[in-house]
Structure formats: C-alpha cells, structure tokens
Fold these 2 entries.
Entry 1:
Amino acid sequence: MFGAVLVLVAAGLAVASTFLPAYSVQVLANGRTLRFESTAWVVERDDFRDILLLQALEFGEPAVGAALVMALAAVLAFRVPAMRVATLLGAGVLAGVVWSAVSQVRGVVDRLGELDARVPIEVEQGDGVTLLIVAAGIGVVSAVLHQELPRADRSADAGEGAVIHQIDDEADDTDTPPYGYPVIVEPKDD
C-alpha cells in the first residue's frame, strides 16, 4: 500500500514538473537583461527574437505518459497484482525522460559555451528539470517498494492439515477412512 501511494506521488510530481521552467538563458548586454525561459511544453519568454535559436526541451509528453502508466498500474494493481510490473516500466521511462532532459540542458550549456560572445551568457537548469529528477528518484524507489508480494493470511497457517482422532469406545475393528465416515459394508446376497 505504501509503495502504491509513493507511486502516485511520483506520478503527480512528474506531471507538475512539466509546467515549471525547464531551463533559462540570461544575457546582460548594454545595461539590459535579455532572458529566455522554457517549460517542457512551450517557450514562456524569448527576448532574443530567434538570435540564439533556443527552443523548448519538449519532454512533457513522455513525462506525462510515464506518469499515467505508473498511476494506472498502481491503481489497477489492487485488482490485478500482476500490474505491479507496469510501475517499474513507468519508472524506467521516467528515468529515461530525466536522462534526456538533463542531456539536452547540458547540450544547451555546451553549445552556448562555444559561442564567442562579448557578454556573459548564464544558463541555468530550471525547477522543472530538478523536480523531474526528484520525481524519477521517488518513482524508481516506489516502484521497487510496490513490487512487494501480498502478505499471506497468517490465520490460514495456524493448522497443519487434517487432524484425525480415533476413539476406541467399542471394540469395533471396522476400518474407518481418515474423514471419519465408517465404511458401509453391505451383506452379500447369496
């Protein structure tokens, strides 16, 4: 149960991360600050007017898809325990989305570092990518916790099988099967 709740938390964080700024670029030139800011879906602010050719990272669809797989698997696992494996699948996809998003931010940093600019260019990873990293971490841990097998009912283990008691009040040597019902022997018709 705890693993399923954590899976739902990780899925919610993954969806929320797509609406926060993924990365931003800031340049201070001639006393004026130019800023570029992007979420996982769209460019929020672009003061450069296509000078630097920056674009949105566009990791929103796979992040939301992974979150949906994780959330649906966590809910459906209450009915079909085999669905727990799908939380691992969703967490793996989410980890891949994180890898891709961080690689894209690093690529922007490297690309802008190669520019021979006379003004300093500041690139920073936004809260969206940071929250996505946290969501993936929680997602992987919760998916592993969610794989816990259902606990066995301990009341069923109390007995050790059928217990047979034989009471010898009569001197009857009739064979009795272990279920306690006497064997019916019909007289032979000659």
Entry 2:
Amino acid sequence: MFSDTLLNQKRLLTDPTADSVVKTVFESGNYQFFSQLMAQMQKNNQAIPDDLPESVKTYFQETQTLPDWANPKLIKQGHDFFARHAQSITSILGYYALPYCYAAANGAEVLWLSQKIRSNTTQRLLETGQFVLEVMAKNAFEPQGLGIRSIQKVRLMHAAVRFHVLKSGRWDIIWGQPVNQEDMAGTNLAFSFISLKGLDKLGISYTREEAEAFLHLWKVIGYMLGIDLDLLPETLKEVYILDKRISSRHFRKSEAGIGLTKALITSFEDFIPNPALKPLIPGYLRFMLGKEVADLLEVPQLASPLLDGLWFGAIKAFNVAGNSLGGFSDTQQVIHALVLQLQQQNAQRTDFQMPERLNQN
C-alpha cells in the first residue's frame, strides 16, 4: 500500500482539469476581468457568470457536485464533530498541521518560492482559517453554503501557483511538480488526520466512528480539490500508513521549512500583547510537533529538557480543562483571535483568487 513507485509517480502528476482553466485565463490576457467575475461567485447556488470563457464555465459546472460515493450521513457527522471541537481544531491547524507540512522539504519549496506565506503570513493564516470555516460549516455543501465555491476557487489558486512557479525558471524538477498529487495528499492528511492526532495530544477523546466520519468529510473535500482517489484513504489505519510513508520520504531539514516556520511563529507572536507570553508560542509548537519534527524546523527550545516535560504536561492539563469548561488556553486564544478577526471582517471577506504573478525577492 502506498509504495514508492506509486508515490514517485504521483509527484509528477498535478490537476489537469484546473491547470487547463488557468492556462486559458492567463493566455487570454483578461485576468482582471476574470477575477472580478469570480469574486461574484460566493454562495454555492449563485449563477455562473455568462461572460466567463466557455472552458471556465464548464469547470465550475462540472466540479460543483459531490462525488457519487459521498455519504451524507458521514458528512453530517464530520461537520458535527468539527463543531464540537472547533476551538481545539483551529488551534491544532495553526500550531501543528501547518508547520507539519513545512517539514516536507520538497513540498515546502513551492510555498517558499511563491513567498505568499513568508511575506504576508497573517493574511495566509486568515485565508486558511476562512477556507476551513467555510468547508466545515454545517451548510457547506447546501445551496446557501460557501463550501463548494471556496473549494473550486482554491483548486484554481493551486493551479495558478503551479503555472507561475514553473514559468519562473526557479523550480527544480527533482522536487517533483509544484503542488503535485503527493504533496496535496499530504496537506489533506494534515487537515484531517493530524487534527485528530492533535486532539489526542491535548487529551481530548473521540470515538473511531467520529474520527472516520471526519476523515470521510476531508476525503470528499480533497477529491473536490483535485486529489486522486487512491491518495484519499478514510480509515484510521490507512491514513496512518500514508502519513508515515509521506513523512519518511520527505521530512528533513530545509531552508524553506525553517523559514516558513519562523514566519509562522512571528505572526503568532504579533497577536500576543503581553511580551512575557510570547515564549509560549514555540513551546506550544514543540509540544504539538514533537522533538524530531520541531528540531527539523528549528523551533526554539526551552531552557532544559526538564522544563520541556513540565511545560508540555501543563499545556495538556490546561487544554483539557479549557475544553471541558468551554474556555481557551493562552495559546488557543491566539488562534481564536485570528478567527475572530476573520469573522469581524466578514463584510470584506477574502476571496480566493488566483495569484496574477509570483512575488519577487
């Protein structure tokens, strides 16, 4: 299962459906016009503008339905599971899932080259948070929901990054294709399986049925984002195996991973008004990531291993208590502040747009 032969092949595959749309848009020279039309499409039931190129209209029409195998009962259970643990999962995504992705050296290169994260990390966090909230909303796939349109736009955004990175002349094919199938599968695991592992680390219990409903929901989302079905397992055993295979193949120290993690920590620290609390951020990352991955990313250490142990025990205790009482730990409040900022600016919500170009050094 998930052999090197299979995963090596997947590193050379992207998403032809979205790639062809992006190619059409950028070769037409009407990027701004296209972006304005896309911005009008927010709710799932909003009409597809007639002025879009035929190939683009076809893309939105053909990718707006859930796959035949999607299970409405499991999707509902997955959404309910997120709703029960939303505070903890949003914290886990920021402190665990995102930096966990940065440990995959080759996959981190595309984020480093595009500069979107290192040059405007907070905005990227808000966009990620917005996407998660929209696909995790209980009405995400209903007519008045936002989930399907968000997925369609993020899929095009990934294709646009591929287009620009390849055009830049700075991409080394030894890394595979930018935003390739294996890397997209790894990211999907980070948002699904790593969220579950994060709950384990925080001492928050759940049933196998709840976990596999949550995995099924992310399998549906991943498939609609253009990930191949054979890279979207949904049992705990299968996702564990795929995560181990990808991490063993790609986790190593890299300039890209270290730089992205440093930018992430700085962004979180900016949300803490009390300077005395800023050291909590790297401490929390080390707790979530574990020593091996945290060291790969050069997350700053506490003064001694003994302090590490005491600190990690305290984090777990505070998070369990906070979850039981409906409150937040200091570290969760940072993520919650980001989510609140996102909700407060909902009137000017970020629209997921294809980048017109790469940012330059």
